[in-house]
Amino acid sequence: MLNEVQIQAIIKGTGYTIIIAIVAVIIGTVCGMLVALGRISHNRILNKISWLYVWFFRGTPLLLQLFMIYYAMPLIIKDLTGHPFPINPLMACFVAFGLNSTAYMAEFFRAGIESIDKGQLEASKALGMSYNQAMFKIIIPQSYKRLLPSVGNEFIMLIKDTSLASTVAISDLLRTTKTMSSSSGNWIYYVYAACVYLLMTSIIQFGFDKLEKKVGAYE
Amino acid sequence: MSKEMIQVVDVHKSFGKLEVLKGINFSVNENEVVCILGASGSGKSTMLRCMNHLERITSGEIYIDGELADKRENDKDMIKISPEHAQELCMELGMVFQRFNLFPHLTALENVMKAPMLVKKVDEATALKDAEELLKSVGLYDKKDEYPSRLSGGQQQRVAIARALAMKPKIMLFDEPTSALDPELVGEVLEVMKDLAKKGMTMIVVTHEVGFAKEVGDRVIFMDGGVICEEGTPEDVIDHPKEERTKAFFSKIL
Question: Which of A11, A14, A4 is nearest to A163 (CA)?
């Protein structure tokens, strides 16, 4: 069984996992919406920039992005400015996971917004609303229900992907488990880890199912 | 001499290589009800949508309430109007769509209140009072808290009319308002429109309802192939058409 020190270590590791996933999902939601608006905008520059963003962050491995921020960026800044630029591993995780999540969320949001009937934007315009008013008050609120499954999915992916944080010296849940297992020679810790991951993802799934029903009440 | 509320001068509209409007001229006076009839693809709806900038004209001029609202040549603006001013002018026009386009995530009441509060910054209490009044006038006060999905097509279209009226437009544009309705629901929407006409609203109605055009229309415009083919009183155009194309059209549908 687990002793108290091990329990504390697992809780701490789980804490890292949760905090990284939550920060990333928040960054992803806010920035993802902005990138999505760029993708559907008629402004060619915004359009191009947001396309490039999604192209890069969706097209390269998350682990590479994490290494670029944690290992490569300090070196680049040192080469450019001559000053050392140490970066906190947790901060690097927030940034890397957040930027990566932004790319995926942006595509979900774009698809969600584009799935809303064109007549809604026309009706808003005919009533004198500006593009922004129509987007934020009429179109986007209607896309929530359609977005929730993908956002929930992304959240669950993030919970699992945070295990990559162990590569930049963060003692997340998986790394903690591995350390315990290899120091004691006992495999059971991996089962505990699986249970904790499943518990977290189940809560998210359950929460999003509830939310979906609530948000779509008008249909 | 009554005042011209809308004046359309030599309007052309092309979608790519396809010319949909080929030089349209007409005007609508205050308190007048003008019905635009014609086969599908004759450009009626496009004409209507050009007036409130849902489509931008390729060339021509549009005046709203005596003011130049749009003047374009080769798809380029020929007058400098700020987007705000253009928006203001378009707000004089209320529009009712074939497919209602109610906001599904808002109740009937919220649908009517939304635009005045957002666009005109009307306070909530006033917007609520106006919206309730309007829903009463279209006979749907008891449905005010229902979401559109719970309303019949006819009820949805009546809410849509109330929603357009909430912006206090000077002119109402109807784009085939009864074409998406089951036959038994057409009457209730036409009743509301007749009511509106009686109250003196200036209306442009694109429709297939010849009966409505005859009964309520002060003037009928028959469009065909992107031009106005014939125009006059309902009796003249519908019952005694002069042009061959008009004759052919009405002989088919009457």
Answer: A14
